[in-house]
Amino acid sequence: MSLFVKIDGCGLWQKMFLWYNQTKGFITLQQGQKAGEVATVEPIKCSLAGLEYQLYYKRVKRMNLRVRRDASVMVSVPYGTSQQEVERFMAQHLGWIIAAKQKQKQIQPADTLPSAEECMKLFQPISDAFYPQFSHVLPQPPQLVVKPMVSRWGVCYPAKKRITLASQLALQPRQAVEYVILHEYCHFIHPHHQPPFWKLVEEKMPDYKARRALLTLSHG
């Protein structure tokens, strides 16, 4: 079994091992299979151990599991895959499916989150306050981008001089917000999580561990 975790840049990740497509809103698990030939337009409704799912035959090379925003389950398989193979695949990943469904149910709907403008009113002043400490590696303040994210509070793109922050972060304690933003700033110097990175974080924010713990407590 192959479990894919989507990673862009140097991000601050929670303990989550599911690949989440933020744009389309589904969690995906993929396993290798033979190449397919044709695709079904309408799904086949199936059930296994009380778990309902939609089955699609597609032009794909492997079996793909997806849990959508509404926690419904779909599986796409190569043409010619037998029902027995599908059921075996589903049974093998039943635990993963349950975890993914629970994760989707915990996701806060985007329309209940603060707007990007509201988030920037909080994030930008904090970023501006930290910038002078990093001006020797940043000729100008980094661009801040805000969007809903599930598995990260923030992510730094050193090459692009950009920090992306989760809309959900605006709902966290200010001390925790400051920690996340500083954390991402430190990646402009150390684009990894090796000891030198954490040493820098501690130098800039001696109480960072206590601030980081606020994120864990407030996010469950």
Summarize the biggest pleated sheet. Answer: 6 strands, mixed
Total count of strands: 10
Shape: elongated
Low-confidence stretches: 1-28, 30-40
Question: Widest sheet: strand order?
Answer: 2-3-6-7-5-4
Mean pLDDT: 79
- The percent of residues in helical segments reads 25-40%
Structural class: alpha+beta
Calculate Rg over CA atoms: 21 Å
- What is the rounded distance between the termini? 29 Å
What order do the SSEs take from the amino end to the carboxyl end, as H and E? EEEEEEEHHHEEEHHH
Percentage of residues in strands: 25-35%
- Helices, by number, come to 6
What does it look like?
The protein is α+β, with helices and mostly antiparallel strands. It has helices spanning 83-92, 94-106, 116-130, 174-186, 195-204, 208-219; strands at residues 10-13, 19-21, 26-32, 44-48, 51-58, 62-67, 73-78, 143-147, 152-157, 162-166. The strands form two sheets. A six-stranded mixed beta sheet has the order 2-3-6-7-5-4. A four-stranded mixed beta sheet has the order 1-9-10-8, with helices on one face. Helix 3 packs across helix 4. It is elongated and about 60 Å long. The two termini are 29 Å apart. The model is unreliable at 1-28 and 30-40 (pLDDT under 50).
In short:
The protein is α+β, with helices and mostly antiparallel strands and 220 residues long.
What's the layout of helices and strands?
Elements lengths: L9 E4 L5 E3 L4 E7 L11 E5 L2 E8 L3 E6 L5 E6 L4 H10 L1 H13 L9 H15 L12 E5 L4 E6 L4 E5 L7 H13 L8 H10 L3 H12 L1
Parallel strand pairs: 5-7, 8-10
Antiparallel strand pairs: 1-9, 2-3, 3-6, 4-5, 6-7, 9-10
